[in-house]
């Protein structure tokens, strides 16, 4: 008879500390050495997200146009040189930060670094490529906003923070018409500076590789770390947008809470996971398996630089909208009023620890977590501390957190469809 092996969840997570060096102009470079892989990835992180922009769409346009031409290379030459060496260049942007990553084999690091230098230090923001980018993004956003999920996401952000808050605002795609390359150059000059940047590199970071990354970072212009004063959030507890032609309704429920530095953040991550953080979660069992209202539902804690919140999201047929909302509130109240079973809580812990281990499987995943830790003011021991908090939480503590933070009158609901 074949016996399934026991599932063993480690009680600790080994995560190396990053070695820190600082360039002459003050840019902090964090090095995560891994000799087992002949690859190099380095990520320049700028405090240049959409909440920092002076004009709608300027932040994302600036970030995405960096690789569309420099003072020495055209967009085609940049793409061809990276492709020839099997390297890649990737840009991501969120509300707070822009992440510019380069990855190559160790033996092709030098030509990749040459391109990185052009992209980071000498972007030209050419008019022709900008016109193409602007038109494509305008069309894409027009199409995206026809989807109920996109509309509920914007409604939810506006309801949480208020329409004037940098985290809650959304802009008409027509405002792309007002954006110019001068706006991009202005934002680049203001935010892509040494004082507004840190770098994380991972893989086989030889002394020569580290020196070249240092050289690029040291060439960033001086500036100042801009800390924009945000208004206080103005929360509205219900927001609805009726779309007669929509067959489905997109639902978002949650509330403003706190960021990752708060002592209850990890505990609320556990609460969110119980509700909708994995395929066997309570909301998935209820809405999908029992009632057949949806294909999927999620719940998560979201961390921004200055705020944090809980969000639950799903899509249902419009005729099931009210029933689905009632079931979501039912599961929230059940968690507030009844202690979770030990076996169910252990399953959630296993899933959460397993996801952390999955993310940390390789130097690039470790680098991504390191970036997140740095942005929160932590070193990499914070990951082990989170694991310990997950393991230690009890059914009583879960109930206390849910009872404290998930009162019905505090929840925000946004519905589109």
Model description:
- This protein is of the alpha+beta class and 417 residues long.
- It folds into two domains: 19-218, 2-Layer Sandwich (Cytochrome Bc1 Complex, Chain A, domain 1), CATH 3.30.830.10; 238-416, Cytochrome Bc1 Complex, Chain A, domain 1.
- 43% of the residues lie in helices and 18% in strands.
- The protein has helices at 58-65, 75-84, 109-121, 127-144, 148-161, 181-191, 207-218, 265-276, 282-290, 321-337, 342-359, 363-375, 381-392, 395-405; strands at 19-22, 28-33, 39-46, 88-93, 98-105, 197-203, 238-241, 248-256, 297-303, 308-317, 412-416.
- The strands form two sheets. Strands 1-2-6-3-5-4 form a six-stranded mixed β-sheet, with helices on both faces. Strands 7-11-8-10-9 form a five-stranded mixed β-sheet, with helices on both faces.
- A hairpin with a 5-residue loop joins strand 1 and strand 2 (28-33).
- The longest helix is centred in the first third of the chain and has 18 residues, at 127-144.
- The model has no long low-confidence stretch (mean pLDDT 93).
Strands, helices and their partners?
Elements: E1 19-22, E2 28-33, E3 39-46, H1 58-65, H2 75-84, E4 88-93, E5 98-105, H3 109-121, H4 127-144, H5 148-161, H6 181-191, E6 197-203, H7 207-218, E7 238-241, E8 248-256, H8 265-276, H9 282-290, E9 297-303, E10 308-317, H10 321-337, H11 342-359, H12 363-375, H13 381-392, H14 395-405, E11 412-416
Parallel strand pairs: 2-6, 7-11
Antiparallel strand pairs: 1-2, 3-5, 3-6, 4-5, 8-10, 8-11, 9-10
Helix pairs in contact: 1-6, 3-7, 8-14, 9-10, 10-14
């Amino acid at each position: 008879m074949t016996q399934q092996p026991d599932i063993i969840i480690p009680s600790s997570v080994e995560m190396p500390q990053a070695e820190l060096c600082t360039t002459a102009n003050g840019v902090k470079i964090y090095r995560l050495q891994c000799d087992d892989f002949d690859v190099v990835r380095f990520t320049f992180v700028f405090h240049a997200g959409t909440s920092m922009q002076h004009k709608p769409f300027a932040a994302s346009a600036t970030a995405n146009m960096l690789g569309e031409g420099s003072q020495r290379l055209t967009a085609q030459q940049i793409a061809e040189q990276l492709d020839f060496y099997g390297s890649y260049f990737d840009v991501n942007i969120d509300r707070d930060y822009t992440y510019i990553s380069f990855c190559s084999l160790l033996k092709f690091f030098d030509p990749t670094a040459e391109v990185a230098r052009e992209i980071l230090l000498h972007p030209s923001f050419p008019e022709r490529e900008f016109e193409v980018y602007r038109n494509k993004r305008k069309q894409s956003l027009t199409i995206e906003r026809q989807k109920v999920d996109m509309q509920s996401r914007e409604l939810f952000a506006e309801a949480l923070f208020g329409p004037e808050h940098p985290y809650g605002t959304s802009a008409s795609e027509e405002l792309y018409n007002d954006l110019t390359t001068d706006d991009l150059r202005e934002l680049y000059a203001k935010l892509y500076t040494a004082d507004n940047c840190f770098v994380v590199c991972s893989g086989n970071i030889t002394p020569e590789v580290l020196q070249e990354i240092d050289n690029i970072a040291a060439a960033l212009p001086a500036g100042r770390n801009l800390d924009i004063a945000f208004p206080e959030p103005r929360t509205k507890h219900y927001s609805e947008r009726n779309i007669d032609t929509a067959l489905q309704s997109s639902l978002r429920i949650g509330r403003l809470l706190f960021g990752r530095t708060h002592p209850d953040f990890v505990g609320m991550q556990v609460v969110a996971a119980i509700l909708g953080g994995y395929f066997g979660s309570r909301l998935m069992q209820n809405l999908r398996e029992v009632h057949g209202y949806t294909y999927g539902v999620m719940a998560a804690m979201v961390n921004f630089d200055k705020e944090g919140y809980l969000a639950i999201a799903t899509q249902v047929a419009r005729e099931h909208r009210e029933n689905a909302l009632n079931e979501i509130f039912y599961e929230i109240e059940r968690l507030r009023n009844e202690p979770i079973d030990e076996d169910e809580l252990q399953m959630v812990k296993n899933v959460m620890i397993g996801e952390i281990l999955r993310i940390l499987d390789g130097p690039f995943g470790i680098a991504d977590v390191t970036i997140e830790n740095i942005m929160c003011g932590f070193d990499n021991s914070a990951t082990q501390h989170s694991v310990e908090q997950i393991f230690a939480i009890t059914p009583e503590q879960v109930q206390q957190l849910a009872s404290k933070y998930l009162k019905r009158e505090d929840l925000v609901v946004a519905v589109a469809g």
